[in-house]
Amino acid sequence: MPDAVVAPWYWANTRTWAWLLVHVNARLEVVGRENVPLKGPFILASNHISLADPPIITVETPRRIVWMAKQELFQSPLLGPLLRLFGCIPVRRFEADLRALRRARQSLGRGLALGMFPEGTRSGRPGMGRAYPGTALLALQTGVPVLPVGIMGTENIRLPRDFWAFLRGRKPVKLVFGRPLQLERPPRITTPVVEEATQVIMLHIARLLDPPYRGFYASLEGRFLPRT
């Protein structure tokens, strides 16, 4: 989809009905929005609880996000065209999708923000699962910073079932933007290097979350991050 179509469509929708839909369903607390780079490429990496996460993060981020989304969503006759209009990148989960990685690098090369959920799927409840290496691999290959993001409370919003949840009261959701993280680029990108970088990214996300939401990464902090 040409960028001349995607960009106007993105902003026209995220600043109108999408903003309204988010705010009538969620009572949002947003922390650290000033940490979002206002120019230049970066990878936004967040924990993933529910289908409500992408629209909430999209609406509250002051940058256009190119989301990587599972390929199955693009097969929907209704949702697929909408995702393409938003410039999303289809990705085959749980495998090395080289085409998706190439498109992601191209988006970053154009100075855009790339949105990723390193866990690869939503948990449906508090507690992060173990991440896949794609986010760290892209960050190491491109040298762009990673913006860690933590979201909490969306386990109480079940889309599309709760499309009109505001009739029963808005659900509290907390969204935290961390400071951009610059991974050190090694002379050679090896599997152990990518694995360690993945742990570092996920632990920076975990630090933004309340303890019940840290899941797999609750007990790993001392191995990969200095204590503060």
Question: What does this 3D model show about the protein?
Answer:
The protein is α/β, with parallel strands linked by helices. The protein has 8 helices and 7 strands. The chain has one domain (3-224): Glycerol-3-phosphate (1)-acyltransferase (3-Layer(aba) Sandwich), CATH 3.40.1130.10. Helix content is 34%, strand content 17%. A 7-stranded mixed β-sheet has the order 1-7-6-2-5-3-4, with helices on both faces.
Keywords, separated by commas or semicolons:
seven-stranded mixed sheet; alpha/beta; Glycerol-3-phosphate (1)-acyltransferase; globular; 228 residues; 34% helix
Please write out the topology.
Blueprint: H1 3-14, H2 17-25, E1 26-31, E2 42-46, H3 53-60, E3 65-70, H4 79-85, E4 89-91, H5 98-109, E5 113-116, H6 134-142, E6 146-152, E7 171-177, H7 191-206, H8 221-224
Parallel strand pairs: 1-7, 2-5, 2-6, 3-4, 3-5
Antiparallel strand pairs: 6-7
